[in-house]
Amino acid sequence: MVPAGDTYISSRLYSAIGAGCLPVIIGDIIIHAAFNARVNYTSFAVVIPEKDFVRHPQNLVALLRRIPPAEVLRRQESLAKARPKILFDVANNTGAAAGTNFLELAVEQCFPRMARCGAQRVRHFNGSAFIGNSMLLQ
To answer: In whole angstroms, what is the distance from residue 91 CA to residue 46 CA?
Structure first.
């Protein structure tokens, strides 16, 4: 369960995603999540409006149990595809398509001019990040 925290977004969301769990988000915090323009969080998260939860918190378990198994499976598959875009340390991230892993999305959002100028793909090498021959992170 991912209730709102002291800030708009809670680390609980990323902990749930890292654990491979479908996040149950209480409130509208999803609009503040990382890379929300490129990641469809509603394809895998269950979002409950905060006013509904506050009014009837006892209905949460019943609502979750009513989700059909096929829908749970679809959301789990969607989560598996989205994890490399959201989390930096996702094992087996080497098979991600260009522009779909965390580091590439971060560079694209932090350095949009490089993305517009057609810079080469970001590649990983011993924990450093490169675009072409220029080191970005070490």
So the answer is: 25
Please state the domain count of the chain: 2
Q: For the chain, give the number of residues.
A: 138
**Does the predicted TM-score (pTM) go above 0.85?**
no
97 & 51 share domain:
no
For residue 27, which amino acid is it? Answer: G
Residue 76 · residue 61 · CB < 8 Å: no
- Could you write out the DSSP letters of every residue in 15-81? HHHHTTPPPEEESSGGGGSTTTTT--GGGT-EEE-HHHHHH-GGGHHHHHHTS-HHHHHHHHHHHHH
More reliable by pLDDT, 49 or 100: 49
Same domain? 72 vs 9: yes
Domain range enclosing 35: 1-87
